Amino acid sequence: MSDTSSLDALIQALRRLPGVGQKSAQRMAFHLLQHDRAGAQVLSQALAQAAGNVRHCQRCHTFTEDALCEICQDAGRDATRLCVVETPADQAAMERTGAFKGLYFVLMGRLSPLDGVGPRDIGVRELIERASDGTVQEVILATSFTAEGEATAHAIAEALGRRGVQATRLARGVPVGSELEYVDLGTIAHALADRR
Ligand code: ZN
After folding, report:
1. What is the distance in A from the centroid of ligand 1 to the CA of 165?
2. Contact 98/170 with Cβ under 8 angstroms?
3. Closest CA relative to residue 153, chosen from 117, 96, 107, 188
4. Most buried by CB count within 10 Å: which residue of 38, 120, 149, 191?
5. How far is the CA of 57 from the centre of ligand 1 (A)?
6. What does the alpha-carbon distance between residue 99 and residue 115 come to, in Å, rounded to a whole number?
7. By C-alpha distance, which of 54, 180, 172 is closest to 110?
8. DSSP secondary structure string for all residues of the chain
9. Angle 88-97/185-193 helices, nearest 10 degrees?
10. For residue 67, how far is its CA from the centre of ligand 1 (angstroms)?
């Protein structure tokens, strides 16, 4: 075994991150070991802790350390409105607008047949069951305005329609092709107010 095997293992581990190739993984590893040993410790502890403690909320599927996330536990939220988003980052963007007081369902992805992501992977059945529980009166589809996000919204709206549940879509105004998380707050708030 060579004396650089720990370094190699670190580089290979960093390469698991999306968009990180051999060169950037090497750069990150060298940086941590040469210039920021304290940072390396902080990173390794944070990773171990998050990987050990973070799970999915039983109701909305977002990340949480409890059985239910903070929003689902909040009795002050309007349980008649359910907003469907793709990711926790999109949910956070919606929360920052302050314009939505209802509850969420986080798909943790979107339909993508080419990548093998189907309805089961994004929890469509759980979503439909939740939406037809008698409490929810409106489902707001806030998936991204990409082709896959639109197809996801369409498929969910159809499934909801078969159960007689009303679905609305964020209005246009959000730029085509965009992920919600990168859209400015005013635009999201407008798109929410003008939903149809
Ligand atoms: Zn939740």
Report:
1. 21
2. no
3. 107
4. 149
5. 5
6. 33
7. 180
8. --TTHHHHHHHHHHTTSTT--HHHHHHHHHHHHHH-HHHHHHHHHHHHHHHHH-EE-TTT--EESSSS-HHHH-TTSEEEEEEEESSHHHHHHHHHH----EEEEE-SS--BGGGTB-TTTTTHHHHHHHHTSSS--EEEE---SSHHHHHHHHHHHHHHHHTT--EEEPPBTBPTT--GGGS-HHHHHHHHHT--
9. 80
10. 8
Q: How far is the CA of 80 from the centre of ligand 1 (A)?
A: 15
Distance 66 CA to ligand 1 centre (A): 9
What dihedral angle (degrees, nearest 10) is formed by the CA atoms of 117, 115, 172, 154?
-40
What pLDDT tens digit does each residue of the chain (196 aa) get?
556 799 999 999 999 999 999 999 999 999 999 999 999 999 999 999 999 999 999 999 999 999 999 999 999 999 999 999 999 999 999 999 888 999 999 999 999 989 999 999 999 999 999 999 899 999 999 999 889 999 999 999 999 999 888 899 887 666 666 777 777 777 888 778 778 7
> Could you tell me the two tokens for 84?
């469907």
